Every structure is written in C-alpha cells, then in structure tokens.
Amino acid sequence: MLNTVLNVKPVFLRRFCSYKSISNVLKASQIGEEISIQGWVKSVRKQKNVTFCDINDGSTVKHLQVVLQDKSNIKITVGSSVQAFGTVCKSPKGVNEIEAKNITVIGECDIEKGYPFAPRKQYAPEYIREYLHLRPKTKKFSSVLRVRHGATLAFHNYLDRNGYVCVQTPILTSNDCEGAGEVFKVVPDNNNLLKSMAKENVNIEDAYFDKKSFLTVSGQLHLETAAHALKQVYCFGPAFRAENSQSRHHLSEFYMLELEKAFLTSLDNLLEITEDLIKGVTKHLLDRYTDDIYVCTENKHNFSWVDKKFKVLTYFEAADIVTNKLSKPLKYKGAFSKEHELALTEYFENIPVFVINWPKLEKPFYMKEIEDSNVAAFDLLVPQIGELVGGSLREDNYEKLQSRLPPNHYLDWYLDLRKFGNVPTGGFGLGFERYIQFILGMHNIKDSIPFPRWPHNCDF
Amino acid sequence: MLNTVLNVKPVFLRRFCSYKSISNVLKASQIGEEISIQGWVKSVRKQKNVTFCDINDGSTVKHLQVVLQDKSNIKITVGSSVQAFGTVCKSPKGVNEIEAKNITVIGECDIEKGYPFAPRKQYAPEYIREYLHLRPKTKKFSSVLRVRHGATLAFHNYLDRNGYVCVQTPILTSNDCEGAGEVFKVVPDNNNLLKSMAKENVNIEDAYFDKKSFLTVSGQLHLETAAHALKQVYCFGPAFRAENSQSRHHLSEFYMLELEKAFLTSLDNLLEITEDLIKGVTKHLLDRYTDDIYVCTENKHNFSWVDKKFKVLTYFEAADIVTNKLSKPLKYKGAFSKEHELALTEYFENIPVFVINWPKLEKPFYMKEIEDSNVAAFDLLVPQIGELVGGSLREDNYEKLQSRLPPNHYLDWYLDLRKFGNVPTGGFGLGFERYIQFILGMHNIKDSIPFPRWPHNCDF
C-alpha cells in the first residue's frame, strides 16, 4: 500500500511536467502509456459527444489525432495552441493516437480576428507569402523549414567527414570583386557617429571603416586564403545581389555553400567532388526527411538521377546542341539563358549536366586559363532550375592573374597567395535555395527561404 | 614475371595520384607503407647529407617530419608548398615520419620577397592581424579555425539531436529592433539602379526595397515566428553593430547562436538548456580538438567548470556582491560594466554565473515582466570574457507587449504571434566569438574570427 502511494507522485508529476514530441508519440510510444503533448490544432471534427483534433508540434509533418469524449462543448479552433493529456492507443488505421482525459487551449486563434488561413482551404504560395510571419504555420512551409535544416546539417556533416573545415568568410568587405555594380553598400545609420569618426581624405559616408564597404557577393576569394593553409575548406552563409530582377530564380539575399580545395589540378576531380556531395546530401535527405519531401513534392518528383552518372559536355558541345539540335540560337556574347539551361537538362532526360571549359570572356578573372582562350570552369545545370553550381580551377600563375585583375582593384592580398607557398586550387559555389527548389520541386525561389528579400520587398 | 610487370603500374599510379592527409599518416599509416603527402613547410634543418622538413597540411596542428637523404642540395624554405613521396617509418620518439624518396617544391616562399613570418620567430597577435590573408598559415590561428569549425558543427549537431530546427533568419531587415541607432543601413551602390526603381513618396535612397533597410542586430524576433510553429528552433549566423568601440570584446560583425523554444514557462528550464548546451559542446571539443586547444591555451587553461554546476543568483544578489563585497559600486542606471562582470566570475572562483531577474529598464521591450518591475531574463557571465549569453522568457501578454513596443515600430507582425495560437516562448543569444575566446583563453576577440571588422578596419 505504501509502495502504491509512493508511486503515484512521480507518475503524477511526469504527467504535467514532461511533454512528448509528436514525432516521438507516433513512432515510439507504447499503447496504454499516459502522456502529455503540446502543439497547434490543424483540424477539428465534432461528433455528438466526441471531438477529434489533429495536433501538430513541428517535430514532424504528421499530425497526432487526439480524441476527446466531450460533454463540455469545449471551443477548439484551428490554429489554437493546446496541451492535451491522455492515453496512447491505436487508431482503426493502426496509427498511434491519444484518448484524451483533457485538452487545454493555451492561445486561441480566430479567422474573424484576422487569421489568414481558414481550415480545409488551399492557398496559392503568393497569398501565403503575404504573411511571412505566419507562413511557418502552414503545412508545406513547415516541411520546407525542416528540409532546409536537414540540408544545412547534411552539407556541414558531409564536408566534416571528408576533412573540410568551415571558415566563416566576412559579410562586410571592401572588395567589389565581381565589379558589376550589383553590390549593396553599408553605412552606419547615424550621422553623429559618422561625424565623430570623420578623417581627412575620407568621405564622411565612409568614415566608419575609412573606406567604402559592401555586402559580400561571394566568399570565394577570402576562402582561398584559408585553403592556402588548411587545404580543404568551405563556407556556408548569406550573399547579396542588388539586381532589379523579379524572376522566380533570384533573391537579393540568398545562401551559398562555397568550397575550396588546395593541391587540386584536375577539373574532373572537382566535378567528382561536386557530384558526390550533391548525391550524398540528397540521399540522406530522402532517407531522413521522406515525409516532408513527400508533402512538398506531392510525391510527383523523380529522384532517379541520384543513382545515375551526371552528364559532362564542353561548352562547345552544349552550344552545338542548343543551337543546332534544339534550335535555340545563343544571343549576347554566347551566354546561355535560363531557357537554354532548362532545354539542355530536358534534352538529357533530366539528368544533371556539367558544362565545362567555358570561353574566358564568359567568366570572372580568377578562373584558370587553358587552351583556346577557355577557362577550366564548369556550370552544373539541373532540371527545372538551371544553374545550381558554378566552379573552376583558379588561376595560379602570378603574372597571368595579375594581367586579368579588374582595374582599381584592392586585390594585392589575393595576388600574395600566388607568391608565398603557392598551390593550385579549385572550388565552387552552390546556390542553397536553388538546391532546396530542386529537390522539393518548387516553382519560386521565394518559397524556399524563411524571409525572402527581392526588389521592393524587405518586409519584417 | 608478367605478374610483376602488371603490378607495377597501379602502384606507380597510386604513388603520384593519391595523397594522404597528414593527420591520417600520423594516426593510421603502417610502417613500410609507401605514400605521398602535400603541404607547407613549417621548418627545415639541414645536416650534411640529410634534410629534415616539418610539413603541415592543415588536417591537424601536428607536423609530419619528412627526412630526405639529400645530395642534390635542394632549396626548401619555410612557407613553401611541397609534395613528398616516401616510406612511413617510426622516428626515434615513436612518431610516424616519412623517409622521402623525393620532395618537390610547388610554390616557393621567400622572406626577402615580403613573406612576413620568419622561421622560429614568435609574433604578437597585433602584428599577425596585419596580414589577415596569410594568418591561417600561422600555427595558432590554424588551430583557431579548426576549433571554430568544430564548435560550429557541435552546436548544430547538439541542437539537431535535441529536436531543434535551424531557421536562417534574414540579414536584411526593415526593423531597427533595438532602436539604439547602432545599425548599418544598406543601399545599392548604383544610382542608376535606384533611379530606375524610384517611386513617389519613397526616398530615392530607399527605392530598392521601398523602405529603409538595415543589417540585422539579432534574429530573435524573426526566429519567434518559426518557434510559433516548429516549437524548438535556432539560428546561427552573422549580426552587426555600428558602434565606435575599440574594445577587445566587440566586433562590428560577429556570429550569434540564437535559440527559441515554445511552450516554455520557466526561466530555470532555459538556464538548464543553456548550461547543458555549453557543457555538451565544450566536452565534445575537448575530446575531438585536444591538440588545437592545447596549442591555443598553451595548456594553461582550466576546464574544471565543465563538470560543475553553474552558479545562479538574482540581479539583486549580484549587485549586492559587487557593491558591498567587492566595493565596485554600480554606475549609470544600475548596469553592470565589464569590470563588474569579470569581478563576479572571479568571486565565484571562475565558475560561470547566471544573473537572473533583471530590472525591466535594463532590458529590451520583449522580455517577460514578472514581479517588482523585473523581467524574467538572464545573463550568463563567464571568466575572462563577461557576458557570453543573454536570454529571457518573452512577453506573451498581448496588451503588455503592445504597451512596451518602441514608438514608430513596424512590429504589428510580432504582435500577431500573440494573437493567433499564442504560446509562451523563451530563448537566448550566445556570442560565438566570445565562446571561442572563452574556451581558447584568447585576450582579443579579433583573433577569434577569420576577418574581423571593427571601427576603421574592414580590410580585404
């Protein structure tokens, strides 16, 4: 008897103090176990004396059904936050559910007070995008967030396992390395501060850093400084472009995974690294985020490419295919448009395509020159998206690099890397949102990032 | 005979095509194995007909000794990049080394051509900081980079294991959430672009986003939108302050780990999460990055705190100790200065100290009010550094939050979170560079980040 009484207290405490995640209840809870859960109501059905609630807590895309024998006529609306306590049992379909002893509403949710998502309604992504702060509450976008998380971790862990070191390259930089005038400048929003820091011969606007400073467009040049000591390095962070593009493929703020490897002399080797990374990360996601990918792609997506060798063709071969076989002539300076890129992957039956050995004039100054005024560069084109990765061997010849530097550069430090313990290096940049778009089959890049920024849009 | 000839080719190929990492050679290579390695020369000693080179390739802080029976008088200087081929053998000290058949210099390195680091010389951090692009080549800083990498991965993986989802909050924001005028504004560096995007009633400078936009000072408010759907979330990325501080504790660009947890009602619970995270990550680093930590701390560092319970005291108790026991009266508005913070951790024998329940006026508007005009907030103070983490429960009462919002705010979206499926939340922000400083015993925060940015300094 004493034993029984002593046993009651801890069980009682556990009931109200410790909550289980819904993914855990669905996967691992035992029938008959008494548990508490917390989450948001995703749907409610009322029958006579029984209320069925689907609850989600973000730990999985799946909902947990909570069944309450309800005589009190408790008001539960979709979107409310609740906690429930009850016993795990099996539903007729064989899924764990909760036979609730009680459900408590913590925060109400009311369509009439302006909640923009009505139950059992489908909304267009453009509509949902107007409510970025509530968007994580929608089913598909919560899956996007979990897959983004999974992809972030998978890239880091793949590279760690393969001996790469993550080096956070700077967001603020005095280089405008691409020189295309597509950079944001950065200035303290405080004129008194600027005045107090003023110096002769420095524009007052530039007084904070003594020089004009910008948001990074790429971490590559900075990353090379670390590759010249740690051999294998990468960075994963935000980059910025001040373009006026409203396309479904562009953002003003986006994430890039950039990798740089020293003692690298072969473009083939770089293609292998790229292909293996993308396949490795994707396989991991298909395995661990099956449900989320299923929801986002509506199970219509074809992942057969993860087991196939990517195609490799030269720029010359690719140009020949788009011009002659697909009758889409190249325009300005021989560049590929998005239309060309998509046509090429379609031509190869939706297998990703490496296009290698580009004309020098198409590519930035730091790419390694090879025969015929070409550079040892590649673009990786993927179905529906076009360019996902761009990379190259870097020019490691001091004089050649010097002769190709943009005018008025501040890149003597970059040249120095070719002067002191120089090694051949190569690397690439992968557009993270494009990767998310690619594997989730998303039409618009703005739906692949929590707070998209694009021209005329920087809400919140 | 045929067999032998056939065998030669693959062995020959392997010799020159496949290189081993030095960490691998030191740990796992077998005596007698023939291998190739690549790296940079860290020291050279010449005796009559033998050259001893210490080579490092960034895979470990340890060097690999390569011994060359050298009749050719090959010129090898410190800092050069080389590759070597030879046989693994044991040194007299029992460490793996290479008896080299050859060493090839790939890129020379010459003090006389301006290489700033002479062999066998120690330099002050301030001197090394003048050469940020070559700094990764120095022993200590390459260790810092590996430990930063390790800490980045460890934070991500700890939080993943504990069910937190990484949500990349925006760098560009239209909120100036702290309202302290310490923000950088962001403007396209292209007047033609701005003109082409101009709208009536919008300042020409703000034409790109239709409103003033800034660099983030914290991802917290944005992170809360995700916590209200995914329950447990975090972000890890750059944040910015436009202050004119030359102190050893501040950067204009720094990294923060921010965490937010929904259904959180107890500050104690938040302290537990914080303490467990910091101890968990630190133990992992002590285990995996032993050599790097040893080099950075010169083995003088005391990590006994990882096995001790952190102290907890209220702001009132802490203020009493610094004022009365340590005779360091508080100044302006009762805030703690760095001096007070350091004195407190010293008083508690270098155990980290949580200071909880702060006066409301000391803290931002979003912190949850409790009794006596206090807020449920904490600062975690650590030895030598002071504040490492700041956190709180968030005000979840709609009316109270509304009444405390800064004037002219654009935070209706933040209020909305308290309107639709509201839940109590809490979280914290941890200064990543301060954490690195803390565990590596580094005096100046500028030596804990690859490209430090501070007033008058934004080189590269």
UniProtKB/TrEMBL annotation, chains A, B:
The keyword Manganese does not apply. Keywords: Aminoacyl-tRNA synthetase, ATP-binding, Ligase, Nucleotide-binding, Protein biosynthesis. One of its GO terms (biological process) is asparaginyl-tRNA aminoacylation. It is an enzyme of class 6 (ligase). It comes from the Eukaryota. Residues 154-450 form the Aminoacyl-transfer RNA synthetases class-II family profile domain. One of its GO terms (cellular component) is mitochondrion. Its EC number is 6.1.1.22. GO terms for molecular function: asparagine-tRNA ligase activity; ATP binding; nucleic acid binding. Belongs to the class-II aminoacyl-tRNA synthetase family. This is asparagine--tRNA ligase. It comes from Sitophilus oryzae.
